[in-house]
Amino acid sequence: MRNGAITDGQSRRIVDPNTGATVTNLAPSAILLSWKPRCDLTTISDGTTNTLMLGEKHIRLSNRIGTNEDRSVYNGDHETGPVGREAGRGRSSDGVVEDKPLVSDPNDNVNPDKRFGGLHPGVCVFVFCDGRVQGVRTSVDIETLSRLADRADGLPIAGEY
Fold first, then answer.
1. Would you say 117 and 49 are in contact if contact means Cβ atoms under 8 Å apart?
2. SS3 (DSSP) at 12
């Protein structure tokens, strides 16, 4: 579901500085000339203090550095694969309800490339849309996590996190 606070941009134009030709990715020498986000602060109707923006991504301790889920940080042009993460309750592409809790065990192998988690015992660190950095308990209930992860569900944050 593409309903997070940060999603890939639209209308971006990237050029090769040597040729001026438009390219599709930000190679080391490419220049980003324009970019328009699909959402901005005005689309976070639940409030910036109640919405997660960035978080630690879960990377298994057994993972080799630079492979699998330990690849690039979020770069704004993809939200799935090794750079995207999901949190809370949602639906799969075929409509099945799925819970995506925070990872508390660094060796957890359940969808490691899609979950948030860190090496801080008992918490996963997030940046909220108001700029605050705060740990969220890995034991947070799924309903509270879902409400924090959805920028426009219109529901209050009822649980502790």
1. no
2. strand
pLDDT of 63 above 80: no
Cα R_g (the chain), whole angstroms:
17
Give Cα 35 to chain centroid, integer Å. 19
pLDDT at 57: 83
Task: Give the integer Cα–Cα distance in Å for 58 and 61.
Answer: 9
d(CA 60, CA 84) in angstroms, rounded, equals: 15
Burial class for 95, CB neighbours closer than 10 Å (0-12, 13-18, 19+): exposed
How far is 98 from 92, CA to CA, in rounded Å? 7
pTM score, two decimals? 0.74
d(CA 42, CA 56): 25
DSSP codes joined into one string, 121-134: TTEEEEEETTS-EE
Q: How many CB atoms lie within 10 A of CB 3?
A: 13
